[in-house]
Amino acid sequence: MTERKPAHIGFETWVDRQIREAQERGEFDNLPGHGKPIPDLHQPYHELWWVRNYLRREGLSAEALLPTSLQLRSELSRLPDTVRDLPTERAVRTAVHALNRRILEWLRAPSGPHVRIRPVNADDVVAQWRAARWAASRAAPQSPTGRAATAEPRSSRTRWWHRFLRRRP
């Protein structure tokens, strides 16, 4: 802590003297960033620069700053990609249940922009997950000669249970 500014000395003179004395004592030597350029000095000014730097430094997505309704809408659009790599049907249903629970919580007390969101039908997601896994398993096997096994084309008829699962109340 520095002493109080004397009344007879001008403010600028007093501050300059404080800085000069600190330099003479070596208090500004070996500071972190000494000799390095100021980051983003060439960038135009942005009023939320500190938020952008924080997100970049912490490796976070800007999605965390969105209102809940937009976060849920984004999660709904990514749901097929999210469940694609899950190993079991139970894991898929658990992921859908967790998302539906968050959607229902938001529907009870909506905040932010009103976006049309409704719970996801777990049976539809599981059916899509099964179809994607079946297609991947058909494409993956190799014959002993090294060529990929070719799948015979399916008929244009839709199975009865696909039609049943697509129905909505």
Q: In whole angstroms, how far apart are the ends?
A: 72 Å
The gross shape turns out to be: elongated
In total, the number of strands is: 0
**Helix run count:** 6
In angstroms, what is the radius of gyration? 31 Å
SSE string, helices as H and strands as E? HHHHHH
Low-confidence blocks of residues: none
Give the averaged pLDDT, no decimals. 81
Can you summarize the main beta sheet?
Answer: none
Helical proportion?
40-55%
Q: Name the beta content range.
A: under 5%
Class by helix and strand content? mainly alpha
Organism: Gandjariella thermophila
Protein name: DUF1992 domain-containing protein
InterPro entries: DnaJ_homolog_subfam-C_membr-28 (IPR018961)
Domain DnaJ homologue subfamily C member 28 conserved: 14-84
Provide an overview of this structure.
The protein is an all-alpha fold. The protein has a domain at 65-136. 51% of the residues lie in helices and 0% in strands. The protein has helices at 11-25, 49-58, 68-84, 89-108, 122-139, 160-166. Helix 3 (68-84) packs antiparallel against helix 4 (89-108) and helix 4 packs antiparallel against helix 5 (122-139). It is elongated. The relative contact order is 0.07. The model has no long low-confidence stretch (mean pLDDT 81).
